[in-house]
Amino acid sequence: MKKTKKLGLATRALHMGNEPDPTTGAIIPPIFQTSTYVQASPGEHKGFEYTRTHNPTRRRLETCLASLENAEYCVTTSSGMAATMLLMQALPAKSSVLCGDDVYGGTYRYFTTICHERHHFNFVDTTDLKKVEKALKQFKPALIWAETPTNPLLKVTDIKGLCALAKKYKAMVVVDNTFMSPYFQNPLSLGADFVMHSLTKYINGHSDVVGGAIMLNDQKMHEKLYKLQNSIGPCASPFDSWLVLRGVKTLGVRMEAHQKNAMRIATWLEKHPNVASVVYPGLKSHPQHKIASEQMSGFGGMITFFIKGGLKESRKFLKSVTLFSLAESLGGVESLIEHPAIMTHASIPVENRLKIGITDNLIRISVGIEDCDDLISDLTQAFNNTY
Ligand code: P1T
């Protein structure tokens, strides 16, 4: 299919890169599960030499994902963290990077314990543009790294405002769009230079792949990322690419179902006597609800809430759920629940965690697409068992 931005996102998710196999007519494109390609004579080949360099299945996925983020280019990787690594490798050594103060624990760990040998990292609350401007003046970053909504506190940054500021100070902006997926938010259209995704989450949606992607419009930067991917090798495998191509077909219907359930559960939790507070961008009580409503076309399926009490109550509650699975990760069709302080964000030093609000009574849920009544019944019995 010719690349077009006129088709709706649900149509593009289904058809871009997913065209029938031209040789057989098979409606589902085959997996090119191959490491290498036969050449007629040295250097005489059909455009494919080795799968680290090129693979037709991965290429199909990249065509689809670029289209979903209104991008010219996409590079897919073996994990979300591999995508982050490629972007960091693409910056000149000793660059200054300004990162949001609430990001996935693995991103924080990579920046502060590995990549700090290559670049200088500083952290700022990107929801506060005054603080961002101060940091831009002080640290002169080449790149701003922003998750919005953040993991796990669901803080929302004004992407347009951030990008305008970044432009003024000649910094590039990456938005980690994993929590919203391209269905609810398109950061490139709001001025970002790069969008990064963990494909492991909503884009694949079925908890059976670990993958990542970077979408962008700059041709030179794409060439650099592609060269890095080929040289270092963190590319998406043919089978994983094929699974994501299959999973992403239902992105639209899944995101609508996640959001519908999440909105109902967040509203219900907000009234629950055992809940101290609830964070969900779709609630009027969310501090950035207005900007969320403007830059996102939905509010997603992630909720965080503060249970009354502390670690004892959190543990009891998390051990009591039966339909929700206690597990790291998010964005799959099945509901997951977790304890950020002990699980996904354990690598953040305790004083930093507490400073930004990741306390022992914080619980994160990834609302799946089950019947919502069943999810609420499960949470109800878990609360009853805890208190
Ligand atoms: O797990 P991986 O595919 O490498 O993606 C890393 C990543 C990047 N960005 C965000 C916003 C993420 O949430 C993640 C992974 N997050 C989890 C595993 C989690 O449970 O939060």
What does this structure look like?
The protein has 14 helices and twelve strands. It is of the alpha/beta class. It has two domains: 9-248, Type I PLP-dependent aspartate aminotransferase-like (Major domain) (Aspartate Aminotransferase, domain 2); 251-386, Aspartate Aminotransferase, domain 1 (Alpha-Beta Complex), CATH 3.90.1150. The strands form two sheets. A seven-stranded mixed sheet has the order 1-7-6-5-4-2-3, sandwiched between helices. Strands 8-9-12-11-10 form a five-stranded mixed sheet, covered by helices on one side. The longest helix is centred in the last third of the chain and has 20 residues, at 251-270. It is globular, with a radius of gyration of 21 Å. Bound molecules: ligand P1T. Ligand P1T binds at residues 79-81, 104, 106-107, 147, 151, 176, 178, 198, 200, 210, 212, 328-330, 344.
Structure keywords:
Aspartate Aminotransferase, domain 2, Aspartate Aminotransferase, domain 1, alpha/beta, binds ligand P1T, five-stranded mixed β-sheet, 387 residues
> End-to-end span in angstroms?
57 Å
Order of helices and strands: HHEHEHEHEHEHEEHHHEHEHEEHEH
Pick out the low-confidence regions.
none
Per DSSP E runs of 2 or more residues, the count of β-strands stands at 12
Question: For the largest beta sheet, what order do the strands appear in spatially?
Answer: 1-7-6-5-4-2-3
The level 1 CATH classification of the largest domain is: Alpha Beta
What general form does the structure show?
A: globular
Distinct helical segment count: 14
Instruction: Give the tally of structural domains.
Output: 2
CATH-defined architecture of the largest domain:
3-Layer(aba) Sandwich
CATH topology title of the largest domain: Aspartate Aminotransferase, domain 2
Strand content: 5-15%
CATH superfamily of the largest domain: Type I PLP-dependent aspartate aminotransferase-like (Major domain)
Radius of gyration: 21 Å
Helix content: 25-40%
Mean pLDDT: 97
